[in-house]
Amino acid sequence: MDKLIIEGGKKLKGDVTVSGSKNASLPIFVATILAPGINQISNVPFLRDINTTIKVLESLGADVKGKGDVVRIDTTNISSHEATYDLVKTMRASVLVLGPLLARFGKARVSLPGGCAIGARPINLHLKGLQALGAEIVLEHGYVEARCKRLKGARINFDVSTVGGTEHLMMAAATAKGDTVLENSAREPEIVDLANFLNFMGAKIEGAGTDTINIHGVSELSAANYEVMPDRIEAGTFMIAAAMTGGDIKIRRMKLEHLDALTFKMQDAGVEITSRDGVVRVKGPKKIGSLNIKTRPYPGFPTDMQAQFMAMMCVADGASVISENIFENRFMHVSELQRFGADITVAGSTATVKGVKKLSGAPVMATDLRASASLILAGLAAEGTTEITRIYHLDRGYEAIEKKLAALGANILRVKE
Ligand code: EPU
User: Fold this and answer.
1) Cβ(116) to ligand 1 under 6 A?
2) From 288, 305, 312, 375, which residue has the greatest number of CB atoms within 10 Å?
């Protein structure tokens, strides 16, 4: 197993390029199941979750080949309709194959994902929506068994804003008979990216990015080529890295408009953020101001940036209150940040962070993907050496992060344990 060793205290300087979005690539890969043919997906990040998605597609019978950041997915010979526990437990987004398999073949058997490090994360709204579209669903032996003739359009109102649920039903409804309306839909940019891809495949989807999505079912889709959007969470993580180290960096290929909630907060905290010709410059202040945040569905403050923002508040001037409203257990990084000397108290879904003058490097353990990123950030800003173990979490979602940070002047090294 690999670990990261960071010698803190270097101000980041220079240019970094953001990779393609993990959370947009995953549903786009899955959507290729909807039609037989050869798709070319470009700007795909090289990540463990992408490999897992490729394994899922291959297990169904798809032929997948990668070259650089371009992945060619041939879905002509898909013959299996089952996603096994082994694959779904490795990456819960694998459950998204259920809807596309049903839509194309009228049957699917997909393992239930079970709990996860950051919360219970049920898929009840995915299943309720598929049932509203006419699927018959039985839960047996830990698997969802689903069958249908052709799915039928329906009006679906989500109880809570769900990214995966919205994506799942958008895919399933694309070839349903008649019209579907998804109300109280999630509005994340990754949903818009998926809708764009589906429309490239021949779907008729309008309103993605708003809370009401209208889908006019078409009789069939065809394979398509598509370039995935940039990863807004990777970009946001670099923004905080620059701010926390008092650095000055330029971030290429990011879409600043996808990160308004974070940008406004960072600007309020004294960080200089400017955008010119598609390049975003982030300059850290001498002392970061303290601020309160509440995670919310997009366009609110993203839960996927909460851990990284908390790392920044650990060295802010004063106290900040961080409320996590999306997942019930997304404070696993707190006890690790405390090992750097951070002053954090948690009560329920709220963490109070009192900024300290300096963090001090420490041996720490990564617990989930974004928690791992927060530990890197703390390590970059801390005095002395930090050693982060269990970084396989990090490899799920950040492409070559240690190489990108090293190119910005960070003293960071990946070594074999
Ligand atoms: N929820 C339900 N029932 C459902 C679906 C969701 O109660 O049927 C609840 C969840 O338990 C959670 C809330 O709704 O409390 C929001 O969950 P959502 O469905 O929006 O999350 P997701 O689709 O499982 C995606 C991202 C996450 C990101 C969340 C929220 C992917 C592959 N994953 O998860 O990304 O945190 O949206 O923005 O897109 C990450 O990249 O680190 C990550 C965890």
Assistant:
1) no
2) 375
CA of 401 relative to ligand 1 center, distance in Å: 23
Q: Name the residue ranges covered by the structural domains of the chain.
A: 2-19+230-416, 22-227
According to the model, what pLDDT value does residue 54 have?
97
Question: DSSP letters of 109-163?
Answer: EEE----BTTB----HHHHHHHHHTT-EEEEETTEEEEE-SS-B--EEE-SS--H
* pLDDT of the residue at 335: 97
Residue 78 C-alpha to ligand 1 middle, in angstroms?
28
Query: Residue 214 half-sphere exposure, CB side, CA atoms within 13 Å?
Result: 3
Q: Which residues are catalytic?
A: 116
Query: Which protein residue's CA is at the shortest distance from atom 35 of ligand 1?
Result: 304
Using alpha carbons, list the distances in angstroms from residue 75 to 20, 36, 65, 232: 22, 5, 12, 29
Task: Give the percent of the chain with pLDDT over 70.
Answer: 100
Q: What stretch of H or E contains 272?
A: strand 272-276
C-alpha 123 – ligand 1 centre gap (Å): 9
- In the reported structure, the alpha carbon of residue 163 is separated from the centroid of ligand 1 by a whole-number distance in angstroms of 6
Asked if domains 2-19+230-416 and 22-227 share a fold, the reply is: yes
Atom of ligand 1 nearest to the CA of 190: 39
**Domain made up of 22-227: CATH architecture:** Alpha-beta prism (3.65)
State residue 342's pLDDT score.
Answer: 98
Residue spans of the chain under pLDDT 70: none
Mean model confidence pLDDT for the chain: 97
- Nearest alpha carbon, ligand 1 atom 18: 162
Q: Is the CB of 326 within 6 Å of ligand 1?
A: yes
- Minimum-distance ligand 1 atom for the alpha carbon of 118: 44
The DSSP symbol for 229 reads P
Class of domain 2-19+230-416: alpha beta
Output the CA torsion sign for 253, 254, 255, 256: negative
Residue 310 CA to residue 241 CA, distance in Å, equals 12
> CA separation (Å) from 367 to 52, 222, 237, 299?
19, 40, 17, 26
